[in-house]
Design brief:
Keywords: Signal. It is built from 4 helices and 7 strands. By secondary structure, it is α+β, with helices and mostly antiparallel strands.
Length: about 180
């Protein structure tokens, strides 16, 4: 009896050992629910000599030197602006010719029998400005007239003296004043 029990235990141990020795990987993938079940037995992963080398990655940077062509285009634009600046400077040159004309002296005296009580003096000056152009095809003229009037005394009868020279106006004022007091 003892030997039958030993033989039975030996057969069980042999069957368990053989079953363990011939075990396999079983992977079950259920695609309907996207759940993966993986059974791994005795898996040993060894990674040796894993070095990552990256070379020739600087060639794309050297190809960016095409920006030099764009800088030469900007330089060409700057020279174009310089030409426009010289054109503007040429327009600013304008010359003005000024002439001042003083009118000739004229005297008109009107007197009545009574003493002269009023003296009127008019002094006129004309100033002209003419712009000089390149072809003298356009002429601009500005005229300025100034009148200075002064009156002396008051009375029922008046005498008018009109002239343009300051020297004659002073002389006539003295003469008329002397006639008034005489």
């Amino acid at each position: 009896m003892v030997s039958i029990k030993l033989i039975t235990y030996g057969v069980f141990v042999l069957l368990i050992t053989v079953d363990y020795a011939y075990s396999e990987e079983n992977t079950t993938i259920n695609t309907s629910t996207e759940v993966q079940t993986t059974t791994m037995t005795g898996e040993t992963t060894t990674m040796r000599g894993e070095t990552t080398t990256m070379r020739d990655e600087t060639t794309t940077v050297s190809s960016e030197t095409t920006a030099t062509d764009k800088t030469t285009e900007n330089t060409a634009d700057a020279t174009t602006m310089t030409d426009k600046a010289t054109t503007i400077a040429a327009v600013i040159t304008t010359m003005v010719k000024e002439t001042t004309t003083t009118e000739t002296a004229s005297l008109s005296l009107t007197a009545s029998e009574s003493p002269i009580n009023t003296v009127q003096i008019d002094i006129g000056t004309t100033t002209e400005q003419t712009a000089i152009t390149s072809g003298d095809d356009a002429t601009v003229s500005n005229k300025m007239n100034s009148n200075i009037e002064s009156s002396l005394g008051s009375g029922s009868e008046e005498s008018t003296n009109t002239f343009y020279s300051p020297f004659l106006s002073v002389v006539m004022s003295v003469i008329l004043t002397m006639f008034h007091f005489l």
